[in-house]
Amino acid sequence: MARSKDPAVRALLLERAAHMLRTRQPVTLRSLVDGTGVSTMAVYTYFGGMDGLWTALRQEGFRRLAARLDTVDATADSVRDLTALGAAYMSNALADPDIYRVMFDAGFDLEDAAAADATLHRLVDAVERAKGDGRFRPDVDAVELATRSWVIGHGLASLVAGGPLPDAALAHGVPLLAALFASAGDDPVRSRRSVEAGWVVEVPESGVLVG
Amino acid sequence: MARSKDPAVRALLLERAAHMLRTRQPVTLRSLVDGTGVSTMAVYTYFGGMDGLWTALRQEGFRRLAARLDTVDATADSVRDLTALGAAYMSNALADPDIYRVMFDAGFDLEDAAAADATLHRLVDAVERAKGDGRFRPDVDAVELATRSWVIGHGLASLVAGGPLPDAALAHGVPLLAALFASAGDDPVRSRRSVEAGWVVEVPESGVLVG
DNA sequence: ACGCTTAACATAGCAACGTTATGTATTCTG
DNA sequence: CAGAATACATAACGTTGCTATGTTAAGCGT
Q1: Would the N or C end of chain A have less CB density within 10 A of its end CB?
Q2: Yes or no: is domain B57-210 CATH 1.10.357.10?
């Protein structure tokens, strides 16, 4: 056959692209490879072009999101845990606003949909656990409730991360989720307490915002 | 002085850019002016460059949004009206997904913030009218409740318009808004009825989706 | 063990992009 | 009615993503 691709080069380019995105430098084919020792062709052998790089970057974003969601561990309060997943989602979006924007930008293909589905599934699991605990009505559809939580989380993340709303608007997450969970059958007072306990969002360069 | 700018040319370029965006043609400087008889310089005299064109396009988007929100007229049911504003917001986003995306994309400057604020203000007014009708608790902050409605609307619009969720997901708007309004003091059953009455979203090429 | 095949990579060039410099025409002003 | 300033066309410049071409090196069959 021939030479085999070096996975380290791929990782290097991906890392560098993410870093350039974070530091607000325009990510162009030439600026990406400048100083790395590799030529522009590397982007084509590893990603098939710039479009492929963006796709890979989206998947890297979902990978990081998944990693952050994994740091949320289950407690006795399943509604708190569900909220904590939402807070972790938010922390991830704020940690890298540009990557988050790229994740949901124009070229949302089937691969990305699968990745998005995987992260949504974690929410579904959390909802089902809460149902098992009797927090939600038995007739509540776990996928639907998870999707609605996602709508709230994405709306908030999208408007705060580089959007028109300030960081302080993250506080809206608590009443929004509490209202949603109460509508699914959870006791309003108890729900509020659980959500306040779980809503801990890390805001870069401004510490931690607690609900 | 000298020749005066022709407002018709500005409107023509803006209209054409919006049309190219809707028909998924890439909007480039040259493709924009091709066939219009004007030269590439027109974009610079009228908008100061492509960035200026995007800013103008964002404002055009907010203008259209405002126009659509104006078609919602007040009825005796103020919560229905508030929901109808949300539905109109959604219809606008789905009618021109690409313009909607541009509106909330990267270059969100102060002008855009003002435009966004103006549209948010209509929601605030509607919330205050509902408070006057005794539908919401007196201690409810109108701006906050309006912002939370916006978070739901934007999250849904963003995930449906070109995003991972299908058009059918628009139906989530009803339970989400109903839950939010109920948490603000509105009677749950009555709220549900009002929201179902107001949630009428126009989906292009697939008719009208009623809650 | 050796040569052929094939993939990885560098170099160079292409069309198209946004922008700017330059020149011309037009229209308001003094 | 002349002067000046602005609208606009034309053309060029640097940079973009991409591709064609050439070279090098790794893996397999004999």
Answers
A1: N
A2: yes
